[in-house]
Amino acid sequence: MIRRLAAAALAAVLGAAPLAQACTGIRLIAKDGGVVPGRTLEFGFDLKSDVLVIPKGAKLTGSTPDGGKGLSYTTKYGMVGANAVGLPVIIDGVNDQGLYVGVFYFPGYASYPELSPENAAEAMAPHEYANWLLGNFANLDEVRANFDKVSLVPVVIEAIKQAPPVHFVVHDRSGKSIVIEPVDQRLKLHENPLGVMSNSPTFDWHMTNLRNYVNLTVTNVPPVELSDLKLAQFGQGSGMHGLPGDYTPPSRLVRAVAFTQAALPSQTAPEAVLAAFHILNAFDIPDGAVRDEVDGVVHADYTLWTSVADLKNLKWYFRTHNDQSIRSVDLAAAIAAANGKMKTIKMDSKQPIEDVSKSVK
Question: Hey, what's the signal peptide range on this chain (predicted)?
């Protein structure tokens, strides 16, 4: 009975929308100075994402909860990245100046001000914020000076029956990173020296939680001698014993720090792109491994797609649940092909499998 009531309460809070609390973000820096952020995108149903190409000079307008118009602006920079549920918004992407923005779920903590006469002229939906950042700013210094000059108001997305509770990670070509969170109805900025990202709770809590894992090391633990008994580790990886392996946001962020800090540095940005995809394999959620049941209906989070951006060479890479082949989008080429208009590139495809049986030598 208690379990049934809890499920009903959860459905009321979330509008019976599938949960999406398992996205993980990382960042690598190559020896050639290339900055490479990457992330996984998990959700309880297929978001039908495509690559969205938005050119410089696009006229965009923020949405408001009453169906009206909020802040209007013209993009200074072209941008490329993934959208969701057919909306003209980028939820993970990069602009032609090498600024990257990723949108991550932030349930239970995201707090937006209500629309009012005082904030209407600067209002936009939370899921439109990445467009505004990518369209207007070239680097983190500019973002820091302007990030809170808009009001994110609770605009409901019909596909999920709620205003998405989200927070944002931002990287630029310098290798620096910040996290922006809507808390207590205002935007709060955190410096992100490790370049990682997860979900709830707040980012400062995650940074404090890392203190619980200061014992972790990439080096195997040496044998211990107890009287005449010598105890050696069973095998490789003893230094990482105790690393949390579950899919909760705190555990995933700890793993993201451990794996990115342990990664041997790549010589070039393209090499770092491949290294980032390998690291992100550790956060891939198989369909069915993470689930909730609401009113007898199972909602299972799984990895819809994984993306990596090369901020030096201005390329955005992705692979999807249905096709693990890595595909790339060159910003300059895609923006030129869009010819001044907002265009899309299809992301979904079928996994090719090559038969090499006759390649025997």
Answer: 1-22
308 vs 35: CA distance, rounded Å: 10
Q: Is the separation of the CB atoms in 52 and 344 below 8 Å?
A: yes
* Cα within 13 Å of Cα(217), Cβ side: 7
Measured CA to CA, the distance from residue 59 to residue 78 in angstroms comes to: 12
Strands 229-231 and 290-294: unpaired
Active-site choice (19, 23, 87, 304): 23
Domain boundaries, the chain: 2-348
| Tokens, residue 258 | 């451990």
Q: How far apart are CA 29 and CA 33, in angstroms?
A: 6
What's the pTM? Answer: 0.92
Distance CA 246, CA 290 (A): 10
Cβ-Cβ contacts under 8 Å for 11 (sequence gap 6 or more): 294, 295
Bridge partners for 50 per DSSP: 346
Pick the CATH number of 2-348 from 3.60.60.10, 3.10.20.30, 3.40.50.150, 3.20.20.450: 3.60.60.10
pLDDT tens for 99-119 read 999 999 999 999 999 999 999
| Distance separating alpha carbons of residues 357 and 46, to the nearest angstrom | 34
Residues 75, 134: Cα–Cα separation, whole Å = 8
pLDDT digits (tens, 9 = 90+) for 185-241: 999 999 999 999 999 999 999 999 999 999 999 998 888 999 889 988 888 888 899
> Under 8 Å CB-to-CB from 196, ≥6 apart: which residues?
24, 25, 26, 27, 253, 256, 257, 260
Residue 44: exposure state from Cβ atoms within 10 A (0-12, 13-18, ≥19): buried
| Surface-to-core class of residue 9, CB atoms within 10 Å of its CB (0-12 exposed, 13-18 middle, 19+ buried) | exposed
| 358 counts as catalytic | no
